[in-house]
Inverse folding.
C-alpha cells in the first residue's frame, strides 16, 4: 500500500466513525444535501486528493480517490458531488491552459467551488454525436451558447459546469469533428435550470438546464475548438472508474446486510442463509464483486501510469454494475417482503443498482464497444 493509500484509509476510517448510514439514508429520504458528509470531504482533505500540490491539492492519484469511494460506499456513505467534480478535474489537469488550471483547480480542493458535468440531452441520449447544444464563435472571440441538457447532477449548486457542445454542425463524414468542451460559469445570464423529480435517494439534486444566448468568454474553451473528443474521453474514462468504486462498495454493503439478515431470519426454524437458494447467489455476487474490484484497481494503475484504458474501464463498468445488480437482487430476495420496508433501507440499493446499468452509460452500448474493440466485431452504433 502506498503512503497516499494508507492516508486515504485512515481518513475513511475516521469518517466512518463519525457519520453513519442512518444519517445519509435520512438525507436521501428527505431529499436533503448530506452537509455533514460534505464537510468531512472538505475538512479531512479528501476532496483535494488526486490534485497536484501546485494547484492546492494533496497529490496522489485517481486510484486514491477510487479507494476512498470504495471504502466509504462499503458503509453506504454516498458521497455528494464526487463523480462530476473529479471527472471534470481530470481533463482540466491534462488539456487546459496553465491560466485555466490556476483559476479553476485550486477552489475544487477546498470545496469553495466544484464542477458539474453536462453532456446528456433530452433527444440525443446516449448518442453524444447528435447533441444539439451549440456554442458558436462570435467575431469578438466569445462563444454564443444555446440549447439545454438533462440529468445535470448538482448543476445549480456547482460553480462551473464542464459542458460539451457543438461548435460546428454534425458532419456525416466525420461525426467526431465539431465537439468542443467548455468551462461554463453556472451563474451566467441566460442560464436557467429546473430540478427534476426522480425516484432515487441520491445525495445531489438533478436538473434540466436551458441555455439561451449565453455569452461564454473566449477562454472558456478547453483544448482545441472542434476537437474535444479526447478531452471528453479523459473525463468519461475516469467517470467509469469512480462509478465502479461506488458499485463494488455498495454491492458489499447490501451483501453484508443480506448475510446478517440471513443468519437470523428463520421462518422454518433454520436460518434462511442455510438454504443454497439464498447462499449461492450471495456467494456468486461476492465473487463478481471481488473480480470487479481487482480489475478496477488494475485499470486505475494503468490510468495512473498514463496507459490507454478505454477497453479496461468499459469492462470494469460491466463487471461492477452487474456485480452490484446481482448483490442487490439477492438482498431483496433475502429480505422477502421486508425488502420494501423503508425502515430496512434495502430498496434504494436495488433501484440504484438497476440505474447503474444504464447510467452513466448503458451496458448495452458498452458491450457493443467491447465486442468491437476486443473481438473485432462490426461497430453497430
Ligand atoms: C441519476 C442520474 C444522474 C445523471 N447525471 C448526469 C450528469 O451529471 N451529466 C450528464 O451529462 N448526464 C447525466 N446522466 C445521464 C446519463 O448519462 C444517461 O441517462 C445515460 O447516458 C443514458 O442515456 P438515456 O437516459 O438518454 O438513454 P437512451 O440513450 O435513451 O437509451 C435508452 C436505452 O436504450 C438502449 N440503447 C441506447 N442506445 C443503445 C445502443 N447503441 N445499443 C444498444 N442499446 C442501446 C439501452 O438499453 C438504454 O438503456 C444522469 C442520469 C441519471 C439517471
Amino acid at each position: 500500500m502506498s503512503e497516499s493509500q494508507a492516508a486515504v484509509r485512515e481518513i475513511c476510517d475516521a469518517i466512518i466513525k463519525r457519520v453513519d448510514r442512518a444519517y445519509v439514508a435520512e438525507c436521501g429520504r428527505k431529499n436533503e444535501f448530506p452537509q455533514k458528509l460534505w464537510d468531512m470531504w472538505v475538512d479531512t482533505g479528501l476532496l483535494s486528493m488526486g490534485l497536484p500540490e501546485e494547484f492546492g491539492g494533496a497529490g496522489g492519484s485517481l486510484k486514491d480517490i477510487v479507494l476512498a469511494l470504495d471504502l466509504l460506499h462499503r458503509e453506504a456513505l454516498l458521497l455528494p458531488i464526487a463523480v462530476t467534480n473529479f471527472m471534470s478535474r481530470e481533463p482540466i489537469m491534462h488539456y487546459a491552459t496553465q491560466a485555466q488550471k490556476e483559476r479553476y483547480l485550486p477552489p475544487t480542493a477546498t470545496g469553495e467551488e466544484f464542477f458539474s458535468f453536462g453532456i446528456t440531452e433530452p433527444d440525443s441520449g446516449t448518442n453524444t454525436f447528435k447533441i444539439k447544444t451549440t456554442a458558436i464563435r462570435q467575431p469578438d472571440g466569445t462563444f454564443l451558447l444555446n440549447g439545454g441538457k438533462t440529468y445535470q447532477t448538482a448543476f445549480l449548486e456547482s460553480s462551473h459546469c464542464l459542458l460539451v457542445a457543438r461548435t460546428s454542425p454534425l458532419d456525416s463524414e466525420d461525426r467526431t469533428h465539431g465537439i468542443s468542451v467548455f468551462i461554463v460559469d453556472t451563474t451566467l445570464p441566460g442560464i436557467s435550470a429546473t430540478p427534476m423529480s426522480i425516484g432515487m435517494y441520491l445525495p445531489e439534486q438533478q436538473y434540466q438546464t436551458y441555455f439561451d444566448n449565453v455569452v461564454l468568454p473566449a477562454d472558456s474553451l478547453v483544448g482545441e475548438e472542434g476537437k474535444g473528443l479526447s478531452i471528453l474521453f479523459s473525463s468519461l474514462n475516469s467517470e467509469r472508474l469512480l462509478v465502479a468504486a461506488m458499485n463494488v462498495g455498495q454491492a458489499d454493503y447490501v451483501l453484508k446486510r443480506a448475510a446478517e439478515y440471513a443468519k437470523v431470519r428463520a421462518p422454518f426454524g433454520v436460518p434462511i442463509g442455510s438454504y443454497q437458494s439464498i447462499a449461492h447467489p450471495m456467494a456468486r455476487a461476492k465473487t463478481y464483486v471481488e473480480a470487479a474490484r481487482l480489475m478496477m484497481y488494475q485499470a486505475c494503475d494503468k490510468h495512473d501510469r498514463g496507459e490507454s484504458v478505454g477497453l479496461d474501464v468499459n469492462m470494469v463498468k460491466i463487471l461492477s454494475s452487474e456485480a452490484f445488480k446481482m448483490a442487490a437482487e439477492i438482498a431483496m430476495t433475502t429480505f422477502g417482503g421486508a425488502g420494501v420496508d423503508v425502515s430496512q433501507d434495502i430498496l434504494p440499493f436495488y433501484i440504484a443498482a438497476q440505474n447503474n446499468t444504464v447510467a452513466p452509460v448503458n451496458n448495452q452500448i458498452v458491450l457493443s464497444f467491447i465486442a468491437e474493440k476486443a473481438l473485432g466485431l462490426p461497430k453497430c452504433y
